[in-house]
Amino acid sequence: KAGVTQTPRYLIKTRGQQVTLSCSPISGHRSVSWYQQTPGQGLQFLFEYFSETQRNKGNFPGRFSGRQFSNSRSEMNVSTLELGDSALYLCASSLGGASYEQYFGPGTRLTVT
Amino acid sequence: KNEVEQSPQNLTAQEGEFITINCSYSVGISALHWLQQHPGGGIVSLFMLSSGKKKHGRLIATINIQEKHSSLHITASHPRDSAVYICASSLSGGGADGLTFGKGTHLIIQP
């Protein structure tokens, strides 16, 4: 069974630009969660999608948004990038959310200059 | 608000030693996850447990629901066990929430 894939793996953007990251979950998994990892804050929950619906959202500004498609693939978008958005963005898929075993993708490392 | 605390933050040990990493959380949870992250960023799920004890190879995870505490043990540690170990919890009440993470334990096993 193929694992969770994320594209792109690395990205360099300029302040003020926007970015879209993609996550393809394990086949059969309907839940996709997104996380941000920085050296200062560690891992933080962004949002979770299940069957195309956002079920929960972490404490991030509205510049961070996402969506999920009918094939369970998910995208997250960050608009008006700030230097502090530089981070490793990880997605994880599961059968039903955070109370199920999580399968993480390799992450997208975003650098904002 | 759920808070997850891990200790120690850093741990250096010699090959073969028995390793214990501790995790405590502040509210009722539905599941406790132990994750492993190697340099480069990839995260692997080691255990997910809601009660009792689980074992996989040289790794053992336990949880005490009453004390809101979990431990990860590594027996006969090996340099390849060097990684960051992270515990994370999900709240009671269903799957519609995200994980809350501890800050991680940086483990180095010296040959």
List descriptors.
heterodimer; A: 113 residues; mainly beta; 7-stranded mixed sheet; 4-stranded antiparallel sheet; 11 strands; 0% helix; 53% strand; globular; B: 111 residues; 5-stranded antiparallel sheet; 59% strand
Detailed description of the structure:
- The complex is a heterodimer of chains A (113) and B (111).
- Helix content of chain A is 0%, strand content 53%.
- Chain A is mainly beta.
- In chain A, a hairpin with a 5-residue loop joins strand 7 (64-68) and strand 8.
- In chain A, the strands form 2 sheets. In chain A, strands 2, 4, 5, 6, 9, 10 and 11 form a 7-stranded mixed β-sheet that branches. Chain A has a 4-stranded antiparallel β-sheet with strand order 1-3-8-7, with no helix packed on it.
- The mean pLDDT of chain A is 95.
- Chain A is built from no helices and 11 strands.
- The model of chain B has no long low-confidence stretch (mean pLDDT 92).
- Chain B is an all-beta fold and 111 residues long.
- In chain B, the strands form 2 sheets. In chain B, strands 2, 4, 5, 9, 10 and 11 form a 6-stranded mixed β-sheet that branches. A 5-stranded antiparallel β-sheet of chain B has the order 1-3-8-7-6, with no helix packed on it.
Secondary structure layout plus pairing:
The complex is a heterodimer of chains A (113) and B (111).
Chain A: E1 5-7, E2 10-13, E3 19-24, E4 31-38, E5 42-50, E6 53-57, E7 64-68, E8 74-78, E9 87-94, E10 103-104, E11 108-112
Chain B: E1 4-7, E2 10-14, E3 19-25, E4 29-37, E5 43-49, E6 52-56, E7 59-64, E8 69-74, E9 83-91, E10 100-101, E11 105-110
Parallel strand pairs in B: 2-11
Antiparallel strand pairs in B: 1-3, 3-8, 4-5, 4-9, 6-7, 7-8, 9-10, 9-11
Q: Into which percentage range does the β-strand content of chain B fall?
A: over 45%
Q: Which blocks of ≥5 consecutive residues of chain B have pLDDT under 50?
A: none
What would you call the structural class of chain A?
Answer: mainly beta
The fraction of residues assigned to DSSP E strands of chain A is: over 45%
Number of helices of chain B: 0
Give the distance, in angstroms, between the N- and C-terminal Cα atoms of chain B.
41 Å
Helix content of chain A: under 10%
Rg over alpha carbons of chain B: 14 Å
Major sheet details of chain A: 7 strands, mixed
Fraction of helical residues of chain B: under 10%
Number of helices of chain A: 0
Roughly what is the average pLDDT of chain B, rounded to an integer? 92
Tell me the quaternary state. Answer: heterodimer
Order of helices and strands of chain A: EEEEEEEEEEE
Radius of gyration of chain A: 13 Å
